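Mods, move this if it's the wrong board.
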Amino acid sequence: MLAKTFCSFLLSLVLLLPLAAKAQQPATQKQIQYLSGTDNRRTVKWDFYCTGGRKSGYWTTIAVPSCWEQEGFGLYNYGRDYKTYGKNFRFADEQGLYKHSFTVPASWRGRRIEIVFEGSMTDTEVKVNGQVAGAVHQGAFYRFKYDITDKLKYDAPNVLEVKVSKMSAEPTVNNAERLADYWVFGGIFRPVYLQSYPQQFLENVGIDAKANGSFAVRANVRNLRQAGQVQADILDATGQVVRTARAEVAANDTVVRLATTLRNPRQWTAETPNLYRTRLTLRNGSETQYQTTEQFGFRTIEIRRGKGVYVNGTQVKLKGTNRHSWWPETGRTLNDSIHLADVKLIKEMNMNAVRMSHYPPDAKFLQLCDSLGLYVLDELAGWQTAYSTKAGEPLVREMVLKDQNHPSIIFWSNGNEGGTNKELDDDYGRYDFSNRPVIHAHHKPGNEHNGIDTNHYENFYSTQKILADSLIYMPTEFLHSQDDGGGGAGLADLWELHWKAQRSAGGFLWALVDEGIVRTDQNNIIDVNAVNAPDGVVGPHREKEGSFYAIREIFSPIKIRLKELPAKFNGSVDVENRYHHTNLNQCFFQWELVNYRKPNDPFAGSITGKKSRIKSPAVAPLAVGKLKLELPKDWKNYDALVLSAYDPFKNLVYKWTWKTGSNAKLLDGVLALQAKDTKAVEVTEIDTALTVKASNITVTFSKTNGRIMAVTGNNGDRLSFTNGPVLVAGTSKFTGLQHRTEADGEVIEASYTGDLKAVRWKMHGNGWLRMEYEYALSGDHAFAGISFTYPENFVIGAKWLGQGPYRVWKNRLQGVSTNVWENANNNTHTAAAPWIYPEFKGYFADIAWMEMNTVEGKFLIASPDKGLFIRRFNFYGLSGIKPAPGLPNGDISFLDAIPPIGTKLGLNIDNNPKNLGPDSETNHLSGAPMKRTLFFYFGLAPADSKPQPYTAPVKDDLF
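Not the wrong board. Structure tokens:
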């Protein structure tokens, strides 16, 4: 409850901040007046003229801020359109002409007044009352400003005119920002406002606060006409002054520096985002001339060459993703709720870091990284081509001066994948008072900087070699997440490799979000530009893919490796602490004992019987300890044990589920079989077929191949479940079909030669059909098991007890848990419209029972054996010249082995995943016999238990 209250308070605070900025501040402080809206929900209409494309050639109005394509103007371009249309392709180069009338408060007379643009794509020329405000600004993603004090009227409206050119007149700006693998837009896409200062003021405040409590601040002093004093007060989270520093300044001084030390400060890390503020006051005697406040954190960043990256003296491994500033309806014009949602999504995946790809973000996103705790790589634009030195120098300055006091930023990234101008490396330190390290985010060996190699898309085995070398390795992009490959697939092996390597600093998955844009020129479809932009582990509106949950488990800082409860489980669980700065006694744990709903129950899920919070063990960072659950004596009477772990801020870290017994136990009340079922089974035999009938269910077997050739359910309608079993790998030759009557049913035995050894059916008098089969395969196989056919277009949905709700791959078994899940049939291909998750089709793990709901009626499949994968229908994980991986024959498969999946990048052309590590190799089968029992009920299955009434999820009273 406290966590929810805090989040609600934080969100309300975030949403109110822009409005608060409009409120009149004291004359001794900076005052703000917005000319535009503050975000994509609160805009202001300006007059607008577009020179080309849609809605061009006449004056109308436009929302500011916005990307003008999303308002119906101009033409769309993806940054790699030059590849699609050839080297002579000309990007849409329309210009937008803006006009806006505004007044200035009379109280601002005599103050310095600046107009500030937070972001405008791309070249921006500003005039106020017909006068040019300054040089044309070139570069889209940077805060820039002009002093317009001498151009304003205080007794009449002022006219602002802005000309924004989509394509820059500076070729290297276009090369760095617009010839890129992302959508490119035009327009004033971030807010525009006026800020006014008293004549004597401080600006460009830079703070250097180290983990040991040393504190220094530097600021530019403007227009100081007489001697004075600058005072820096350090305020803690409660607003109390905990330390003060003072310095004398002389007339005409332009820079002031102050320093002091705070004993035992609360340090900032991504796990402990403790924040302070410094209040800077410029005084002349007892008179306050100017006052400003900056937020900061005490923390120390070190690159220890050949060892790793250290924060506050502790080595850290960055578990990160790449984040584009993105929203489908409004492009790069966002709001505080989107920023907050993205930070929370990243942290929900148990990540501790984010890379700004490939440009600096809105200030609000960084503020949230500060307050909620994420390490940040802040990046200068330059996708694969760099700014010239002349064009880049002012942009580095603008980025650093805007972002330098965010403790979350631990590195400056000087461009991406060849978009690095090394002449700019030393510019960062000129403006960053704390002198953070600079890195180069690159995709080729030999471009390391500051002792860190960031090479992109190395596989498991090449990563091993890099980590055995002398450099720190921190890939700023790896495991490309296009389609269903990458992200979580192959991550378990690769992350263990990084975690255990001394010289690993972690890495950043590509990427967080599928960049799908609502095309206002194409009936508002969401366009991902074919395979170029669907690169995320969440969809355009943050729809969660299966990899999202796999990443969450793999990156969990609380690591529990127990896969199933031992026969003599004593309630003790080994737990590894993978936090860097947090003891597990700061976390919270809770167990639940649950029973699963049955197939005849109209609801999915489980019913909680008992639960309890347990004592958290004292396990130091990077240590291993024991978690004692203290379960009640009757714990085995329940179906499953669920253990939840919460971090010190009461956020769920992960939830583990273990069955308390076998699948056979879970099928109590599902399989309505008696030891002696005396109901008669009718047998009909002709030359080509054998038919058995019980409880109004009819199954016909072919005498020519031994397979099911027809089924009638207990509702009297035909069910098109046929043509099986067929081996999905290996060979088999049918040799005959026999049948005989036993006390509890009719037995049908099909004999084969080859890899399929035996298939034995039994129709019970109550209609249950038992199938026992055995096969043996040797060598490498993508999958192993048997298949049947059933038309997918007849399927309404499925309910199952097993791992879910997402599908799995051999190298992405994480992120799913045992429960009763239900899913309607959908045709989703991961990372493509309509982004309906979980996908219906795929491989589903450890199935106890699965009920298929079809237009022909229901049918139920169950197995008392563990480790059953069920494949549902035809799908593919990776798009390409040939969709991959290949599929088993048939439509519904019962498998003992399933394939891994590759990624878009870093592998050969057929998406062979073998280089992603041991889990990603194909299945190596020894020739040992594989046996399994399946049960089928064709119709609405009987059950021993009555459906349970629906109960809302139990409210978590842990806190």
